[in-house]
Amino acid sequence: MRNLKWPKHSILAIAVIVTWIKTVIVYETSFDMDIENAMQMLILIINPLSFLLFFYGLSLFLKSPKAQNRYIVGGSILLAFILYGNVTFYRFYNDFVTLPVLFQTSNFGELGTSAAAIISWMDILYFVDVFIILIALKFLPKVQNYKPVRKDARKAYFVMAAAVLFLNLGLAETERPQLLTRAFDRELLVKNIGTYNYHLYDIYVQSKSSAQRALADGSELVEVNNYVRANQAEPNVQMFGKYEGRNVIAVSLESLQNFVINNEMNGEEITPFLNSLTQDKDTYYFNNFYHQTGLGKTSDSEFIFENSLFGLGRGAVFFTHGENTYNSFAESLGENGYYTNVMHANSKSFWNRDMIYKSFNIDNFYDVESYDVNDGNSVNWGLKDIPFFEQSTKLMKDMPQPFYSRLISLTNHYPFYLDPEDMMINEFDSSSGTLNRYFQTVRYLDESVKEFFDDLKEQGLYENSIIVMYGDHYGISENHNKAMAQYLGKDEITAYDSALLQSVPLFIHIPGSNDGQVMEEVSGQIDLRPTLLHLLGIDTSKDMQLGADLFSEEHEDFVVFRDGRFITDKVVYAGEVCYDRETGEEIDIVNCQPYIERATKELGYSDQIINGDLLRFYDAETGNLTVDEK
Ligand code: GP9
Ligand code: MN
Questions:
Q1: pLDDT tens digit sequence for 203-218
Q2: 403: Cβ below 6 Å to ligand 1?
Q3: pTM of the model
């Protein structure tokens, strides 16, 4: 071996090749990306290459082999951490990290039990390229009489790297036109330009959005305002103000999807109490209601509930735009004499809640400090839901009335761990432990809601309240499609099925209303704010928001998801395919076309309001644009 003459840049070549191969293997093993054809496979394979050529190639500017090698080793470690960070994040969120989310370090510290379930010793393999480079450095002969790289050789190298990049972008463009301009979907981006380039792109988009706020002015609101006013649903006269002055108790049901409602698992009822509500004389149960959250999960659902605007396509709006001006549900109630608060037994900084709640003008946040939490009454992410609701009702008893409390439950959260004494039904028996345990934690959540109702009655808070409960987002991601298909008795879960599975239950329980019914209107979380305000007799005709009152005659059967999918009473649009809502068969895209445009428009307007922080130019009292910045 010593006799062989090794080219002087072998380490560079080795680094490019091993990191390349490792990255492709990681794509295959650690991310669940749908590859539909050979071209997509080819793009996936070449997409890390251009970046790696550039990145490691920068070593050619360094003067000595020692400095070059140090740069290459350091660089490989950095890239390995970035990729591994993506992998762990993906295991948890089924999505790729974006820059704003990366700065949510306060969140990562608290993943607690989840982190343990996510990381394993085998993960050292994600650093295998670093080890190979180190071994190569040790065993390859040292370069003798090193001369710095000639300029033209270096130029040729970077021309080659650029050629690879353009080849990549060209192939991606044929496969996925306008990828970079319209992308909502991180998976598509990573599939087409690779994780590393994706991060560069993300940095670019992020800086653009900071610039957007700086450049925005009130005139952008004119178009948005016209659209909002033209699409507003008039309140239902019978319902408007019917429950004026009642307390509002909103309950976020963690990870609860609608498929468990009125369903069984191995012969056992999963949600007996919630099932009883679907038949209850005082409950409106919405069985065609969908979550509209993105990467911000619970926080997105809160954002939508409070503002009737969408979260963002990238990152969590709670973090990226926590200091914007908003006209929240809480603020409207506050102006109408309500004491407003959120109750959630987690630390206040999680999802940046403490900050954004101030922007929402929420009077008080009962965070973990307000609760008695100990080893005996906690599991998984913290305080169990049954003691959480029990302690919350005690706190509510002392609140000035009318109040608005939004309670966020937590036990039914991935990885769905439960103490044996809280397991009321058996596990399911699929290959997915996650889905198997999910039924048990859902059963526990159901029990906690039942006891919550009893607690409210006991404390005398029940009669004079409206209790609204909804699933915040999905609990079972597409990673568990196989197990899910087994449970649902299907051959596979298609894009059509996945879209419909985003249905979460909504219950609007109004003691004494005597008008309970099952509501089949296609609707989403964005509709909650105007619906509730109208029940309380609060006008929303000047509000800058995108939802529609669920009881209004003018409410349309149309729900848009954050990623651009949508559902109506006739069609389901998912994966850029239009399906017949009834049969699930693919139909001509013209059936979806008008809605595609509206969905894009609504998501775009919402983004515009948030990115430009446009509500600082709007007076929700008068409906006027204000010139002065608040
Ligand atoms: C954390 C809880 C869970 O406080 O709301 O957040 P999620 O992971 O579901 O977004
Ligand atoms: Mn959640």
A1: 887 777 778 888 888 8
A2: no
A3: 0.79
